[in-house]
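Lab channel / #folding
Pinned by the channel admin:
"Please post every new chain as: sequence first, then the structure tokens as a reply. Keep commentary short and put observations after the output so the thread stays searchable."

First post following the new format, from NK:
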Amino acid sequence: MSRRRFLPGIVATSLLFAACSSAATPAPTAAPSAPTASATAAPTKTSDGTLPKPEVSSVKIAATIAEVGQFGTQLAVRLGIYEKYGIQAQVVIFNDDGGVLQAMLAGQADLAQVGVAGVLSSQTTDNPAKVVAVQKTKVVDGLFCGRDIKTAADVKGKTIGVSSLGSTAHASALLALQALKLTDKDVTITSVGGQAPRIAALKAGSIQCAPAAMDQAKDLSGLGFNTVVDLSTSNLQYPASAMSMPARFIEKNPKATLAIVASLLEAVHVELTDPANTATLWAAFAQIAPDKALAAVQALPGQLNPSLRWTKDGFLFTQQVMAIVNPSITTVDVTRAYDDSFLKTLEEIGFYKKIGAPTS
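Reply from TO:
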């Protein structure tokens, strides 16, 4: 089948995920180790973290960088990390995942920082992509409810507002229900709009609960609302930001892929271990005040995935959320949408140890 035929559908699905949001509730579970995939990374006998010379000397990366949790790709450029491993990287910024995915699949970019939803959708085209690293494996929302709603029993029968069905906010609501051992059959989920409209609806009483970013907890608590579930402290996975490449690029350039994955791993490690420098660079990039940038960076330990690894369950959950608006996605084998062999190789050659990053 042709890429042209399916691309609009992929973009539409990706845009749904970019919005901040019935089928049976998926049941994600945390797993202690990363999934297994066929190894494609170039073999090496080194044990000191040394990387092989990449097949290409430059790449173009499409990305959405709307918040600091997505900054790793750009940070690697600003710190010269890609260049250190033999690659000149250019990051092209898009407003949403739809544009990012389209640029990669159309060949306008070599790789992309994009949500897993779009990568799953690409499996139905003649140019499928694969995830090779995930820098965010979970959402950091909370489920906020009215002052008299504090337990799972209280949530049952209530109305939860999300931005739209199939969106990230919808995923957050389903994850919160999973944490409470409830299903979407126990509540009414309704589309309200983005975070601001959801909070407004919560204040007005037209909904009883809503997912919102945990940085809203203090303000909402002051208004009498309860944080019933804090997803930032859970182990439930929803891979939201991933480094992805067309399978063709990976097959042709395994050494370059290894260098790219290593660069992102090192950049994320810097974000988590050098907040002052990261905040300075983030403030300049985002054009925000230094104190605001530092506060955002200091919150990263609860958001970023320091090993860049993931679980199959996270991909299955993403697939099931997508199925709410795109039922055909259920036919996709999620294991074909990722390749963890490069991260395994980085561990085997001592790269994780060299930079001090955790392996899980």
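NK: The two ends are 38 Å apart (CA to CA).
TO: also worth noting, Residues 254-273 form the longest helix (20 residues).
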